[in-house]
Specification:
Blueprint: E1 3-8, H1 23-40, E2 44-47, H2 59-69, E3 74-81, H3 87-100, E4 105-110, H4 134-149, E5 183-186, H5 190-198, E6 202-205, E7 208-210, H6 217-234, E8 243-251, H7 255-261, E9 273-276, E10 282-285, E11 288-291, H8 293-301, H9 304-308, E12 311-315, H10 322-335
Parallel strand pairs: 1-2, 1-12, 2-3, 3-4, 4-5, 5-6, 6-8, 8-11, 8-12
Antiparallel strand pairs: 7-10, 9-10
Helix pairs in contact: 1-2, 1-10, 2-3, 3-4, 5-6
């Protein structure tokens, strides 16, 4: 395990028990947690993107703000729903945020998940072309985004421009060198993981995936990662790809930990679950790990997907506040991660 970061869904609710009661709270606390996580030694700060929900939605102002407040930590998404995105405008936003951060963006993009409203992307002005599904549209947007990130000129310049142009066709500005190799595809199936490999994207695999065999979740996810790596190599890409997996992992080191998560075994949260995420997709959901640190080390060593990946993203309960989330991250980094090979070299 080379890198360990956190993944926040950025929920907020005005409920009295929540430490995150507004969108302003969610944004400010996300920035603060990234700063604290960097100080603790974490490698990455990642954020989920949802629309029409009391969650983080527009990622690039947040990523740019974190980039301006931090120096080392990777800053990313897991994932941006490409059904909602204008690829060219997104490339400009991503380029600006990456330059502010000094080349630390790691952008996870995907077809997305079931949303709060029916066909929400239609309200953003997008619809599948004739014969396309919404998933096809998301992949089309992704391919256009990857193409413009290459930084090659494609637009014919005005012969009488307001400002002087460089020679030749024009590209989008600002261009962020290297960002094209730091795009990840959030994949729930083996087939889309292989598609992402052929396009030279990194792979993000979450806490759920399509239920494609009778194996446990972590074994199915490990098979997906191996299929992805084989497809990446077969495509002839020169670099070594990166792979992340997300997990809900809580080390029980304090009374507060035991109060929040100590009864997960009694609630059947320590087992995989299988269900339907929409009318066509049957998925398997990974377990939550919550135990004393020595028990966690034993359990996580048996997780085949963690062993296959190079990056682990820890989902955090952001509505419990920055201090408690920082404690959750620190407990894993201090008491669990070294035994999994993190920074052992």
């Amino acid at each position: 395990m080379k890198s360990i970061g956190f993944l926040s869904f950025g929920h907020w609710t005005p409920a009295p028990q929540s430490h995150t009661r507004s969108a302003a709270d969610a944004l400010a606390q996300s920035i603060e947690l990234a700063v604290v996580a960097e100080a603790l030694g974490a490698d990455g700060a990642y954020f989920r993107v949802h629309h029409f929900a009391r969650q983080l939605a527009s990622p690039f102002p947040l990523l740019a703000a974190i980039g301006a407040r931090t120096k080392r930590i990777e800053i990313g998404t897991a994932v941006i729903d490409m059904r909602y995105e204008n690829p060219l405008y997104m490339a400009e936003d991503a380029g600006a945020a990456d330059l502010i951060a000094g080349g630390r963006l790691q952008l996870g993009i995907s077809r997305g998940s079931p949303e709060q409203v029916v066909d929400g992307w239609r309200y953003f002005g997008y619809r599948p072309a004739e014969g396309e599904t919404e998933a096809d549209m998301a992949r089309r947007h992704a391919e256009a985004f990857l193409e413009v990130l290459r930084g090659e000129g494609f637009a014919r310049p005005n012969p009488r421009p307001m400002f002087p142009n460089p020679p030749g066709l024009l590209r989008l500005e600002p261009h962020a060198p290297g960002l094209r190799d730091r795009i990840w595809w959030g994949s729930s199936s083996n087939a889309t993981a292989q598609w992402a490999a052929r396009l030279g994207m990194n792979l993000q695999s979450s806490t759920l995936k399509d239920h494609e065999s009778n194996q446990p979740f972590h074994a199915q996810q490990a098979d997906q990662i191996r299929a992805y790596r084989a497809a990446f190599e077969a495509a002839g890409h020169a670099r070594t790809p990166r792979v992340s997996v997300s997990r809900s992992i809580f080390a029980l080191t304090t009374d507060a930990d035991r109060r929040y998560f100590g009864d997960f075994g009694d609630r059947d949260e320590d087992q995989d679950h299988v269900g339907w995420i929409d009318a066509r997709t049957r998925a398997i959901f990974g377990r939550t790990y919550a135990a004393e640190p020595d028990v966690l080390v034993t359990q996580l060593r048996e997780d085949e997907a963690i062993a296959e990946a190079d990056t682990l993203l820890l989902t955090i309960p952001n509505q419990l506040g920055v201090d408690y989330c920082a404690h959750c991250i620190d407990a894993i980094l201090t008491h669990v991660a070294p035994a999994l090979g993190w920074r052992s070299a």
